[in-house]
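Input sequence (229 aa), recorded before submission:
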Amino acid sequence: MLRSKPEKYLLSFILLILSCLVLTGCGAVGVQTTPIPTTLDSGENLIHSCPEEDTLYSLWFSHLAVLDIDPGNGETFHLEFENVPPSYFDLWIYADGTISNEGIFREAPIGYQGTANHPDSNDCPVQTFAGEWQMRAKISGTCANDIARVHIIEEWINPVLESNCVSGISPGTGVFSAPELDLVFNLKDQYPADGLSTPEGSTFQASYYYHLWPAGYELPIVPLVPEEK
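Predicted structure, token format:
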């Protein structure tokens, strides 16, 4: 029988993760917009401007979130969340400039892995996590003057954290907020992209990057994160 301490701590830990991954609520950790390279030396820009006819696009994304907790009492937690590629949501850009994914049902898997140390537990001194759950998104926005402005609300569906010590830890059934972002895509860029990241060195670190691309076309191999200078 597991002692209650690790399980109780983990339940609070999950709630912390779910609340922190709502980036609009993580301003305290210093979320900052980070432009990513969008103009490469070769390749064709398949977008150019806002479409004159209703057109289906894909919003390709790359997500990584890392949470490190060390309260100083020997208990430590490290957990990473990352998208499982290929990762994208479809959306319409209508001729009137409206952007929406209403009526499009698509889910994307998010994987996780990590470890936790419980020095006071005889039954579970070292805990490992591994698994995945699904994420969906609500997308809206506008397109005008060759600029697409996209508001995306991502939601985790019935998140359950599996480990070798405690099975099925969850804050409850239903959907829970993941990133909620306002993105800006310059359609004249070769690969229109936008994203943001948290600064390094904090307990919670994350990077969320997106490319807007015509549906039905595979996204070329392009940098989804900023290049180091």
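Checked by second reader. Residues 94 and 129 are 43 Å apart (CA to CA).
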